[in-house]
Design brief:
Blueprint lengths: L3 E4 L4 E6 L4 H10 L6 E5 L5 H13 L2 E5 L2 E5 L10 H4 L7 H10 L1 E5 L12 H9 L3 E5 L2 E5 L7 E3 L5 H11 L5 E5 L5 H12 L3 E3 L5 E5 L7 E4 L4 H14 E7 L7 H10 L2 E4 L3 E5 L4 E2 L2 E3 L11 H8 L2 E8 L10 H6 L4 E4 L2 E6 L7 E3 L3 H13 L3 E5 L1 H5 L5 H7 L3 E4 L1
Parallel strand pairs: 2-14, 3-13, 9-10, 17-19, 18-19, 22-23
Antiparallel strand pairs: 1-23, 1-24, 3-5, 4-5, 6-8, 7-8, 10-12, 11-12, 14-16, 15-16, 19-21, 20-21
The protein binds uridine-diphosphate-2(N-acetylglucosaminyl) butyric acid (EPU).
Length: about 425
Amino acid sequence: MQKLKIEGGYTLTGTINISGAKNSAVALIPAAILCDETATIFNVPNISDIDALNEILTYLGATVTRDGETMIIDSSKIINKEIPQGISKKLRASYYFMSALLGKYKKVEMYFPGGCSIGARPIDQTLKGFKALGATVIEEGDKYTIFADELKGGYVYLDMPSVGATINTILVAVKANGVTIIENAAKEPEIVNVATFLNNMGAKITGAGTSRIRIEGVDTLHRCMHEVIPDRIEAGTYIIAGALLGDKLKINNIIPEHVESLTSKLEEIGVEIEEGNDYLIITKRDKYKSTKIRTLGYPGFPTDLQQPITTLLTQCTGLSEIEETIYENRFQNVEFLNKMGADIRISDDKAFINGPSKLKGTNVVATDLRAGACLVLAGLVAEGITTIENVDHILRGYEQLIQKLTNVGAKIELV
Ligand code: EPU
């Protein structure tokens, strides 16, 4: 089993180029099968979640060409067959095939998706969207058979602004007859990226990025080219690394507006940030103030950066507070931060971080993707050697993590 070994305490300086967004790419790739010709996607990150989606595409009979960060998907020869449990469960985003296949072929058979175990993560809102558009859903244990004689536009009010349910409903609605309205939709930039992709193919979607999305169904979707937006969570992780250890650390190829909830927090606690059109330059300061953070859907503070920023809060003076409002089980990193010397107490959906603490390297475990990112940051700032087990979780979501950190002065390797 591979482990990450990090020797902490090195200053980070130079440039980190941010890759395409995982959570956008993992939706764009299944969405590509709605295209009746070839879809070309640029800036696709080279991470294992993309390989897992590729496996599903190939299994279904699509032709996929990958050249560096460009992916060309030709779905003209797809055979719509059951997606086995083994590959359905490899990642959360496999369920974008549920909607893409339902939209295109009016039938899909697959299993409950996988993903990090950070909470129950039900899919009831996605199913509600499908039903509102005329589909019948048969559940047998973990298996779902979903079909419709005719998909008809409908009105969907989401109980909560779910990213997955918003995208899944869009992917069916683009091929339904008539108009669909999604109310209380999620507003994440990844949703805008997916809607733009579909509009480039000829779909008629307006309002993506707001809480009311209107989709007018179309019969065909034509050839298109599209680019994945920069990964705001990867960017945020390295911005936090800069706050911990940066000496003019440049985080390049980003959309600064997408990380504003993070940067405004960092400025509040005292981090030095210089902003350009598509980059930020971060320099560590010696003393930071404690703060309060509450995770929310975009444009609020992202739950995906909650665990990474906890590492920074261990270095702030005073009592910081984090409230996790999206997932019930996203504090599994805390046990390991405490093992490294942090002083964090959890009470229900809140974590109280008493700082500053001197972190010391030890053996820790990445229980999920962003817990892993949190521990990488802790390893970078800790005294001595940190080894992180279950590295696969981290490499699912961070392209060339070791290379990118090594390039700016970190001592990190796979052992
Ligand atoms: N929810 C339901 N029912 C549903 C859907 C969601 O109760 O049908 C609940 C969830 O349990 C959760 C909340 O609503 O409490 C938000 O879930 P959402 O559907 O927005 O999450 P997701 O689509 O499953 C995506 C990202 C997550 C990210 C969330 C932020 C992908 C593949 N995953 O998940 O990314 O945390 O949005 O809302 O896009 C990560 O990258 O580490 C990650 C977990």
